[in-house]
Amino acid sequence: MEIGVDIVALDRIRNAWTRYGAAFLNRFLTEDEILYCLEKKDPVPCAAGRFAAKESLVKALGTGISGPVHWKSFEILNDSRGKPVVRITSPELDRMVRFARVSISHDRHSAVAMAIIEFGIVGSE
């Protein structure tokens, strides 16, 4: 089992979004993540939280964004109660990760996320 944590300044995300527009969001968020964030009055904290969550996941993996791991290897949406849920979209990672969980929080200045990953071939004992 491994953990990862990341914190990101909301201004960093806001500035990049202002400068690069939708291309910035499309670089690290899935279509459903973008739609979810755009439903918010201020989508920046939502996008920043997902950015931090994905960073925390790759830190827990120990790989960073490299090789088969890319920004869209994970999709982070929320269940009906608002809890963030990780869906692994990469078949290679899906086979090696037993489970992945994240917790996301933000205030007026930053977003922080923590991830926990358990490795192991799914279905093996």
**How large a portion of the residues is in β-strands, by DSSP E?**
25-35%
The low-pLDDT segments are none
The largest β sheet comes out as: 3 strands, antiparallel
Overall radius of gyration: 14 Å
Mean pLDDT: 92
Number-wise, the strands total: 5
Q: Provide the structure class.
A: alpha+beta
Helical stretch count? Answer: 5
Distance between the termini: 15 Å
Largest beta sheet: strand ordering: 1-5-4
Fraction of residues in helix: 40-55%
Order of helices and strands: EHHHHEEHEE
Shape: globular
Structural notes for this entry:
By secondary structure, the protein is α+β, with helices and mostly antiparallel strands. The protein has five helices and five strands. It has helices spanning 10-20, 22-28, 31-38, 43-61, 91-96; strands spanning 2-9, 74-78, 84-88, 97-106, 110-119. Strands 1-5-4 form a three-stranded antiparallel beta sheet. A two-stranded antiparallel sheet has the order 2-3. Helix 1 crosses helix 2 (22-28), helix 1 packs across helix 4 and helix 3 (31-38) runs antiparallel to helix 4. It is globular. The mean pLDDT is 92.
Write the layout of secondary structure elements.
Blueprint: E1 2-9, H1 10-20, H2 22-28, H3 31-38, H4 43-61, E2 74-78, E3 84-88, H5 91-96, E4 97-106, E5 110-119
Antiparallel strand pairs: 1-5, 2-3, 4-5
Task: Sum up the structure in keywords.
125 residues, 5 helices, two-stranded antiparallel sheet, 30% strand, 5 strands, alpha+beta, single chain
Please summarize what this structure is.
By secondary structure, the protein is α+β, with helices and mostly antiparallel strands. It is 41% helix and 30% strand.
